[in-house]
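tool_log.txt
---
The assistant was asked to compare two proteins side by side. It first ran the structure predictor on the initial sequence, then on the second. Raw inputs and outputs are pasted verbatim so the downstream comparison step can read them without reformatting.
(1)
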Amino acid sequence: MPLAVVNCSQLVTLAGPARPRVGAEMRELSIIADGAMLVSDGTVERVGARREIEALMSGDCEVVDAGGRVVLPGFVDAHAHPVFAGTRVDEYELRALGATYQEIAASGGGIRSTVRRTRAATEDELVASCRRYSEWFLRTGTTTVEAKSGYGLSLEDELKILRAIRRLDSETQLNYVPSFLGAHDVPEEYRARREAYVALLIEEMLPRVAEEKLAEYCDVFCEEKVFTTDESWRILSEARCHGLGLRVHADQLSLSGGAQLAAELHAQTADHLEHTDAAGINALKEAGVQPVLLPGSVYALGHTRYPAAREMIEAGLAVVLATDFNPGSSPTPSMPIVLSLASTHLRMTPAEALTAATVNAAYSLGRGDSIGSLETGKRADFVIHDCADWREVAYFFGLEHARATYVAGRPVTLK
């Protein structure tokens, strides 16, 4: 049945060039005041002024009255770790008492703590527990999420996580884009023989992931004390040979050379970038790599060094924002919180932040032609927010502004 969304105080379409937005383009949101939208077969048929759209409505059209509220595209969260077992609330308390992320990891906590719990869980148990997180994303207005593995760190456990992601994509209304992150850390049993683990990643894990078509991307945590630039280069180069796109955890804890590596390999994205310098920014620009910035993890870890977003935008990079949702360093699925942090700590305007969380994020996942903006022919992923002005979504932070979420033109049902 055709669908008409009417009585929108602001229909924020983000219509524009069919590519990631850069520079001043990131502030151009193509807002239609008193707007409306026609949806047919799950895709946007037309957007325009309310009077224009109402004249085109057929008798069998289902009408959704936005009630004078704001309508935005669904958020596209381009960096998340949404499949894991257990929590790390004990480490949260330790950090409040002064322990650093690195100290906790060195004592057997951090990623390895979640690995132990995730290895002990079955695929069915992971799917059942992570349905809850899918609802959290949808409830805050996110309709697509990039989903990394990385809490298995063995062949069977990494495959288990990726299969769980595939099931969540088919069994929930949230859209998942799977990434293989077997190079998230070196597991306990390989600490004294890390070269053997790199060989396992290259010779066994990547071929199986590709054979079963379980991932679209491969990611590596490139950091001197995790995977060196040489190790990361070998893993990512092999991933490319298997047809996977490349993403890099880069320069999060130090100036590790991750941004330079992402540029050298022409990766799709370089993520984190808290310590990236001017040379790294220039390298990303020359190579056309999109930066994915994760202020939620900086905030949650109690750090003060945020990525140089302003410099990246002024350099002409197509900046992306994401949550980094995970049980340790960024336990939030809320893109509105990230938008708030972007304006208060990254010096991004609200318009730049919104562009980074929607259309630019969609392009970073290879989906810019189908999601991220409300334009004719794109999937009708949209959210009615209980605001009169779209900027309130970030301005009144800590609230769930999403009044109703639609994926492919269908309302999301939440428990």
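(2)
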Amino acid sequence: MPLYSRIFYLATEFRQIVRNCLTLSLGIVLSLSGTGLAAQELNFEYFKNEVQPVFLAKREGNVRCIQCHTRSSNFRLQPLEEGRLFWTDEQSRANFESASQFAVAGSAPLSNRFLTHPLATSVGGDAFHGGGAHFHSTFDPEWRIMADWVAGASKRREPSAVPVRIIQTNAAADNSSVIDPVTNKVIATIDDIEIPHGVVGAPDGSQLYITNEAMHSLDIVDSRTLRVKRRIPLSGRPNNVAVMGDGSKVYVGIMEMPGSVDIIDVASMTNVKTLPVNGAIHNVYVTPDSRYAVAGSIHTSTINVIDTQSDELAWTLEMSSGVRPMTFDTNPDGSTSNIFVQLSGFHGFAVVDFASQQEVARIEHPAVAGQEAHYDGLQGAPAHGLGVSPDGKTLWSTSKVYSTVYIHSLPDLEEIAQVYVGQHPEWVTFTPDNKTAYIGAAGDHVTYAVDVATMKTVARIPVGQVPKRVATVRMAVD
């Protein structure tokens, strides 16, 4: 046998050995994960909600699967109907039937063309795929989602961990930064959401909710893949977003007159109600006990309080000027004690007693010695970021005028510290252990990490363009 033929033969044999090992090892992994290789049926609901989003996701260097497969004569995807951001149930069923032709339920993953065709040849993929190699590892989270479906999964696998992460949305970019609070480093980015505004996480760590100003949608991001798994159309341009403590509903403020809050049912991933309120909504929050959603309007200077059981307006309060960021403290029984409110044109915050529904105090921030006041680009909000520390002992309020966060003790509201946190500081969030506060400095394109105990800056974390809203979430790891 010629030398080149012998080399080719040996290379082919080695590739087959590697392929067999990968099939065996992945089969063991899937079996141990609880998906079960012995399953005999492919599950439609899992396909619809978990696998189909893979076909819409944008992976770097690749076109989206849907761009080619709506024209395919083999594995064919249904084109999205005009104005829709996801397939109908009827279309999903057609996609399921098409994909099922290339998958054998319960069989070894690398014996299914559905899994090998988009996989790189170096890890057991087919020799050629007209759409290129989308997955370069059998441990890629999206590929594993598809492999779980082939194995017969009917629900998501249990996460191996659910660590805390800080999500910094970048208001002048098409991405959001994922920060590890242990290292204070950006460890990933969430792409494909242009002008991300507000962000919150599902309590179980399964997904994130980011409002998309460009597409007027609520984008649901899978925590395993960091890709958008569903875009839910909204009634108008969204601003901030909040989630119920049990994860069942999401509230989205709509920044268009005459004013509304969209209510999203998480189980069905649908917009189930557009609730009229008094004025276009800049920010919406859920109280710590989840009994109310509180929405503020700049246009009408109004606080709108929504009963989350009936999803109807419970009461309103008109303030002296536009309502900006808000936060809450609680009574010993966990009910809401006060709403702290920042206002248009006011360098400080007001205090609203929740029980009496009246403003009871107003704190104005003093000038900072040695700091030059900045008034350019305030957008009507000299103070634009509030947070109560997890231990309930301090209130943090950011000042764009003096590039400072003012820290007050609770409940007496005595100022106890001033910390420089960069140009145009915005929102505030804390790690659950009360160790670190994070503040987006929109003018510096960094997120500041401040030690809560010492009230000193411990890190300046470079992020994207114009970081504003920031949130603490848990993110399940596959």
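---
observation on (2): Confidence is low (pLDDT under 50) at residues 1-20, 31-39. The chain has two domains: 3-150, 164-474.
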